[in-house]
Design goal:
Layout: E1 8-22, E2 25-31, E3 46-50, H1 58-67, H2 71-77, E4 86-90, E5 93-95, E6 100-106, H3 113-120, E7 126-132, E8 153-158, H4 163-172, E9 181-188, E10 202-207, H5 218-224, H6 230-235, E11 256-257, E12 267-274, H7 275-288, E13 296-302
Parallel strand pairs: 8-9, 8-12, 9-10, 12-13
Antiparallel strand pairs: 1-2, 1-7, 2-6, 3-4, 3-7, 5-6, 11-13
Bound molecules: flavin-adenine dinucleotide.
Flavin-adenine dinucleotide is lined by residues 46, 87-90, 104-106, 108, 111-115, 161, 164, 301-308.
C-alpha cells in the first residue's frame, strides 16, 4: 500500500479550495511546494493522507520526512498520541503544471478522523500526503486498474468511496485500444449524489435513499443479477481456477484480490466497495456466475464498523 515503498514521497499540502460535488461528496483541491513533482500512474492511484491529531502530529511527520529515509518505520515508531491518523484516498485529478491535486471525500459523519476533517476543513488547513513522485525511479505501484489490451467487456462495480476512482477510469476509456463495452454499477447514498460524468459507458446509478431500508451494498448486489454474463462465462469455459471465492477467509482486514490477466483477456471486472460487500460481489461473480477468479479484481475500500488506518 501507499507509503511503504520508496517511490512514494511525503508531500506537505495546503487546502486551497473545497467544492461541494454533491450532498455526500466534497472535492478538496490542495497545493504545496512540491506538488509539481507529484505523479499518478492510473485513475485509481491510491495515496495516504495524514490528519492532525489532538497533539498536533503533522510537525513530527514533517521532521521525520526531513531526517529519515525509511519514514514509514519512523512514523510507526511514533508514540500513539503524536502519530497522525493515516487514511487511504484516491487522486481524483492532478495538475502538476498548476501545483494542484484534487481528492474527493465521502462525508460519512463525525466518526472518523478523515470524514471529521472533511466536514470542518477550511482553505489554509494543512495535511500531509504520500503519493508517487517523478523524482524517484522505481516500479509503478499503488493502483489496480489494469485493463487488458484486447478487452471486449468491462464491468465496474463501486460504492461512493470508489466513485472518484471510477470517475477517473471513465475519463480514460476512450484511450483504450479495444473499444470495450463498459457497464458501471454505482451505489451512492442519495439520488442527489448522482454526478454528471463524462463517459462512453452504460452507467447504473443506485442511490440507497430511493429504496427504503437499503443497507450498504444491497443495491449493488441486487442490480448485479440483472447483468447478463453468460456469454463471457461460456467464452471462458474451461478456464476455471482451482479454488472458489468461498475459500477466501474473512480475515477482518480489507479484501484485496487482484485480477491476473494477459493482453488477450476478453473480460475484466473491477470491484471496490465496503469490504464485506466487495466479498459478496466476488462470491456472486465467481461461484454463482462461474467467472474464473483471475478476471475479477475485488477491493474492500472500507469496513463497516471498523476504523482502518
Ligand atoms: C485504495 C482506497 C482508495 C480510497 N479512496 C477513497 C476516496 O477517494 N474517497 C473516499 O471518500 N474514500 C476513499 N477510500 C475509503 C476511505 O479510506 C475510508 O472510508 C476510511 O475509512 C475513511 O476514514 P475515516 O477516518 O473517515 O473513518 P475511519 O476512522 O476509518 O472509520 C470510522 C467509522 O466510519 C465508518 N466509515 C468509514 N468510511 C465510511 C463510509 N464511506 N461510509 C460510512 N461509514 C464509513 C467505519 O466503518 C467506522 O465505523 C479509499 C479506500 C481505499 C482502500
Amino acid at each position: 500500500m501507499a507509503g511503504r515503498n520508496t517511490t512514494y514521497h511525503l508531500f506537505d499540502i495546503t487546502l486551497a479550495r473545497r467544492t461541494q460535488v454533491s450532498p455526500s461528496m466534497v472535492r478538496f483541491t490542495f497545493t504545496g511546494p512540491e506538488v509539481d513533482r507529484m505523479t499518478t500512474h492510473a485513475p485509481d492511484q491510491r495515496i495516504k493522507l495524514f490528519f492532525p491529531s489532538q497533539a498536533g502530529g503533522l510537525e513530527a511527520l514533517a521532521e521525520i520526512a526531513r531526517l529519515e529515509s525509511d519514514w514509514y518505520a519512523a512514523y510507526r515508531a511514533l508514540p500513539d498520541a503524536s502519530r497522525p491518523p493515516m487514511r487511504t484516498y484516491t487522486i481524483r485529478a492532478l495538475r502538476p503544471e498548476h501545483g494542484e491535486v484534487d481528492v474527493e471525500f465521502v462525508l460519512h459523519g463525525d466518526n472518523g478522523p478523515a470524514s471529521r476533517w472533511a466536514m470542518h476543513a477550511r482553505p489554509g488547513d494543512r495535511l500531509a500526503m504520500t503519493a508517487p513522485t517523478t523524482e524517484v525511479e522505481g516500479p509503478r505501484l499503488g493502483f489496480e486498474w489494469r485493463p487488458p489490451r484486447d478487452v471486449q467487456r468491462i464491468l465496474l462495480v463501486a460504492d461512493e468511496t470508489a466513485l472518484p476512482a471510477v470517475a477517473g477510469i471513465l475519463e480514460t476509456l476512450d484511450a483504450l485500444p479495444s473499444t470495450p463495452r463498459v457497464e458501471a454499477l454505482l451505489e451512492v447514498p442519495r439520488s442527489t449524489d448522482v454526478q454528471a460524468l463524462e463517459h462512453p459507458a452504460d452507467l447504473y446509478w443506485l442511490p440507497r435513499d430511493t429504496v427504503p431500508g437499503t443497507g450498504h451494498g444491497d443495491r449493488l448486489l441486487h442490480e448485479l443479477r440483472n447483468i447478463d454474463l453468460r456469454r463471457e462465462v461460456l467464452a471462458l469455459d474451461g478456464q476455471s481456477d482451482t479454488a472458489d471465492a468461498n475459500d477466501e477467509p474473512d480475515t477482518g482486514r480489507l479484501l484485496w484480490e487482484s485480477a491476473a490477466l494477459d493482453d488477450e483477456a476478453p473480460f475484466y471486472a473491477w470491484v471496490a466497495a465496503e469490504s464485506r460487500v466487495a466479498m459478496g460481489i466476488r462470491r456472486y461473480l465467481i461461484n454463482e456466475c462461474g467467472l474464473p477468479k483471475r478476471y475479477v479484481t475485488s477491493m474492500g475500500y472500507w469496513r463497516l464498523g471498523k476504523a482502518i488506518g
